[in-house]
Amino acid sequence: MSSVISGLNPGNLWKYFAGMCAIPHQSKNETAIREWLIGLGKERNFEVRTDEVGNVCIAIPATPGYENAPTVVLQGHMDMVCEKNNDTVHDFAKDPIVLVRDGDWIKAKGTTLGADNGIGLAAGLAFLDETDAVHGPLEILATVDEETGLTGAFNLSPELMTGKYLLNLDSEEDGALYVGCAGGADVKINFDVTTAPVRATDKIIDITIKGLMGGHSGLNINENRGNALRILARMLKNLQRQGTEFHLVNIEGGSAHNAIPREATARIAVANENAEKAMQTLNAKWDSVKFEYAKREKNMSVAIEYSNTMIPTAFTRTLTDGIIDVMLMVPNGVLTMSQDIEGLVESSSNLATVKTKDKVLTVHISTRSSVGSVIPEIQETAYIAGLRCGASVEIGQGYPAWQPDMDSPLLKAGIAVFKELFGKDPAIKAIHAGLECGVIGEKYPGMKMLSFGPEIHGAHSPDECVSISTVERFWDYLKALLAAAAQGKL
User: Fold this and answer.
1) Given 79, 116, 170, 172, the catalytic residue
2) What is the mean pLDDT of residues 366-389?
3) What would the pLDDT profile of 230-272 be if each residue is shown by its tens digit?
4) Is 116 in the active site?
């Protein structure tokens, strides 16, 4: 066990979290952690079920005397978002997450921590070794590839679990019970890369934006954090408006569809006689952008510098214009607020990534809404933008929202247990993010669900951290709620 978490409570939860951190488990690279999970169940002679897509369900017997209590599913996902700072040397395919303690917080050294959703899954696994907990039959459900498309939930076998009550342990706010979530879908705008020769006299300018806060594109979208790709597009468009012609050599940024881009880069080719004006124009625009975000993005920075690299070709002018225009035309940020829950974002869109592969440049947009009919409208806007800028467009399948059930017996029991344990009512909320509950609810009609977790900040960014004290409260509440379920209080 890592010395960083030695002595923390609950011991079993932290033990399993450290175990997960030692095993690479990036989305779509979950073979090792899946085998580890299966091994944990089989070592104890517990029933372990799997399905074709890779989901794992471990059946834990009830505490003696509670065998006839309803089965409760404890659900989390086994993958994590993998982001790192530019100056951090880390290979997520093989290197363990290095844990760091900072007062009441556990974080990682220069990378995402994976508390989303490692802490929740570790809480379920802790019941493998808990001898003093009171509970009925449990099913620990670990799904694959939640972060890049809810693949595990979408392909969940209906026979994998038997419980009718599900506790999703993938929320990130202490003292809150979540009863609903947004649905979402992606749009990919694809440009065929066409090039033209670069003149030997042209100057090459590199633009690198970094140091933005980034964060979860659902949870943090209402905080008006800077989007590095959008800012880069604004700088390039302003350069065009000021009369300086240039050609993109390349442009990229962002790391995941569900993360606000923290970094973005572009390389441009400019006629020698216009190079100095271009440098001045880019720096002036950056100064105005930095002023806009002065109170929110204190660590944002840009490097605008000449490159001595010999560049034989650059994007055509038509392609250059199309890419920049699409990056400015697609919806980005908060679009509507909920009419039912004060302060809740109803609909949003995130200009997530720009990447080039096999001579195709893809602009990836992630849309969310708690109103199902709104998502196609957002997608349509991006679709039109892509077509008008000369690209082809892929409309993603999407995932459903989880509609709140305020009369659920599980919710009523959850509120009662919370109040008895902590002497106050919990906050009842919906979340502007894609929990797996909406998809699982479609697979298992009638499933009663509730989501909660400890305090996690900065998910999907290297600033991710989890509060030690709230993990203990989260654990105490989970145990108390399972005891109530075993004692017939649902």
Assistant:
1) 79
2) 95
3) 999 999 999 999 999 999 999 999 988 889 999 999 999 999 9
4) no
346 and 408 share one domain: no
User: Is the domain of 98 the same as that of 133?
Assistant: yes
Phi, psi of 204 (to 5 degrees): -105, 125
Work out the percent of the chain whose per-residue pLDDT is above 70.
100
The three state secondary structure string of 67-79 is: CCCCCEEEEEECC
Residue 5 is assigned to a structural domain of this protein? no
- Alpha-carbon distance of 185 to 398, in angstroms, equals 4
pTM of the shown model: 0.75
Helix (H/G/I), strand (E/B), else coil: 367:
strand
> Locate tokens 């075993």: which residue?
486
Locus of tokens 């034989």? 312
Residue 221: domain span: 185-395
Type and span of the H or E element at 475: helix 468-486
Residue 303 backbone dihedrals phi, psi, to 5 degrees: -120, 120
Closest C-alpha to 58, from 178, 146, 161, 134: 161
What single string gives the DSSP state of each residue in 82-116?
Answer: --B-TT----TTTPPPPEEEETTEEEESSB---HH
Of 322, 406, 421, 335, nearest to 362 by C-alpha is: 322
| Annotation says 476 is catalytic | no
CATH code, domain with 130? 3.40.630.10
- For the chain, report the end-to-end CA distance as a whole number of angstroms: 37
Query: Which of the following is catalytic: 30, 116, 146, 186?
Result: 146
Q: Are 393 and 384 in contact (CB under 8 A)?
A: no
Contact 392, 190 (CB under 8 A): yes
DSSP 5-63: STT-SSHHHHHHHHHHHTS--BTT--HHHHHHHHHHHHHTT-EEEE-TT--EEEEEPPP
